[in-house]
Automatic annotation (TrEMBL):
Listed name of the protein: DYW domain-containing protein
Protein keywords: Repeat, Transit peptide
Coiled coil: none
Mapped PPR repeat ranges: 40-74, 142-172, 173-207, 275-309
């Protein structure tokens, strides 16, 4: 600046703009850019890319338009890649299609990076056919092209097409594997996610941070604690993968859902950096395990950190209050959520309040909450009320809740079962008989109970009265032995 190089040398100006933009100092980058007496395509591209990378899509697009209109510069492929990123962030599909036409008509379609950017942009809009058109038109494809197209199918819910494309890939890297594992995990197919992760390990592909963040929720859903522990020991303890905040949160969630609350607490205490998700993971972990005192203590600690609680935090708080019957505390937190943090309660928060009031015997108040909600109570709210009516034997409110639930889902067997139990508790056998006939006429069948257990890294699933397991005879023999010991100890089963 002192010697005047910025004004006289495009090369020096570009280097300085790039330096500031690369380090996130966009205000300084823009000041140098504006002071440049002469700019070339690199100058403009650096500013467009700098804004796009920092999520300032509107600024990126304004600079791009100024470049073309006022600057008189023709964008190159790097400029267009940055512009497409901005368009994807802004959610303006029409602009994206215009750029696509410009690329096709301008003879820039041979650029792999530009084609990849187009595929990725169409992915953000869920335009599967347009993305596939670009993909099929590529003379040369790299591993990013294939991975992005797999991601397109996964986002659009076409898992079979994503899996087929994944299998057809001439070469895969860790990102490709992570993408497919994430697709299965997010599509509620944890078995496939875990299977693919194990196959990845067998093929000697080293997982990355994104791989572990994707497979751990699948472990949590299946209760694969052994696999989760192995991942932690093999990749975190060994230092192969850095424990980021997001990855730490995924481990805490996995440990908690698999029942190892001590490991979750240890990891939380050891984390050097935490965000609101970290705190929420621990709040929900203790809430699910009915440890309300720890939840309330955590919330007080959270308030002292300066991190602002969100709707998930309060969902955990209300859930903990519901588990332990803390009515006054639940009311206070529900009020604090709205008045103190300006968080509008959602249906899940109201369902927790209905459950809390209902379990505490305040059925009339719970009904008023359900009726006074700004949105429909839904299955969670009315279901909580119906279950509370079963506990307290309230026929009238139970019938009201059941009527609402049947309208929402007539095929849900749980509604009929709970109402049968309510009627039976009051010896209303005619109504019990009528409900069972209604279930038969409507073709409603009670779903059998299901449980699973992990043994030596393998998940075993059982249905009620299941005889299909290869070790069924041994299992039932062991159960019979347990029953005998229970009776000898004086245990009397509840009817």
């Amino acid at each position: 600046l002192k010697w005047g190089f910025v004004g006289r040398s495009v090369l020096v100006g570009n280097a300085l703009v790039h330096f500031y933009a690369d380090h996130g100092s966009l205000a300084r980058a823009r000041r140098v850019f504006d002071e440049m007496s002469e700019r070339d395509v690199v100058s403009w591209t650096t500013m467009v890319d700098g804004y796009a990378r920092r999520g300032l899509a509107d600024d990126a697009w304004r600079v791009f338009c100024r470049m073309v209109v006022a600057g008189g510069q023709q964008p190159n492929e790097v400029t267009l890649v940055a512009a497409l990123s901005a368009i994807g962030q802004m959610g303006l599909l029409a602009l994206g299609r215009r750029v696509h036409r410009y690329v096709a008509e301008g003879g820039l379609g041979g650029s792999i990076s530009l084609a990849n950017a187009l595929i990725d942009m169409f992915r953000k809009f869920g335009c599967k056919s347009s993305a596939r058109e670009v993909f099929d038109g590529m003379a040369v494809k790299d591993v990013y092209s294939w991975t992005t197209m797999v991601n397109v199918y996964a986002k659009c819910g076409h898992l079979e097409s994503a899996a087929q494309l994944f299998e057809d890939m001439p070469r895969r890297n860790a990102v490709s594997w992570s993408c497919m594992i994430a697709a299965y995990s997010q599509a509620n197919q944890p078995e496939e996610a875990v299977r693919l992760f194990k196959k990845m390990i067998e093929e000697n592909v080293e997982p990355i941070n994104a791989t572990l963040v994707s497979v751990l929720p699948a472990c949590a859903q299946l209760g694969c604690l052994d696999l989760g522990r192995w991942i932690y020991d093999n990749y975190i303890v060994s230092g192969k993968v850095v424990l980021t905040v997001n990855l730490g949160n995924a481990f805490i969630d996995m440990y908690a859902k698999c029942g190892d609350l001590d490991a979750a607490s240890r990891l939380f205490a050891e984390m050097g950096e935490r965000n609101v998700v970290s705190w929420n993971s621990m709040v929900m972990a203790h809430a699910v395990h009915g440890q309300s005192e720890q939840v309330l203590h955590l919330f007080e600690q959270l308030k002292g950190t300066g991190i602002v609680p969100d709707e998930i935090t309060f969902l955990g708080l209300l859930s903990a209050c519901s588990h332990s019957g803390l009515v006054s505390e639940g009311r206070r937190y529900f009020k604090e959520m709205k008045m103190g943090y300006q968080i509008e309660p959602k249906a899940e928060h109201y369902a927790c309040m209905i459950d809390l009031l209902g379990k505490s015997g305040l059925l009339e108040e719970a009904l008023e909450v359900a009726k006074g909600m700004p949105m429909e109570a839904g299955e969670a709210g009315w279901g909580a009320l119906l279950n509370a009516c079963r506990v307290h034997g309230n026929v009238e409110i139970g019938e009201c809740a059941a009527d609402k639930l049947v309208k929402l889902d007539p095929s849900d067997s749980g509604i009929y079962v709970l109402m049968c139990q309510i009627y039976a508790s009051k010896s209303k056998w005619d109504q019990v008989k009528m409900l069972r006939m209604l279930m038969r006429d409507r073709g409603v069948k009670k779903n059998p109970g299901c449980s699973s257990i992990e043994v030596d890294g393998k998940c075993h699933e059982f249905l009620a009265a299941d005889v299909l397991h290869v070790h069924s005879e041994d299992i039932y023999a062991a159960l019979k032995n347990i029953y005998i010991h229970l009776k000898l100890e004086g245990y009397v089963p509840l009817t």
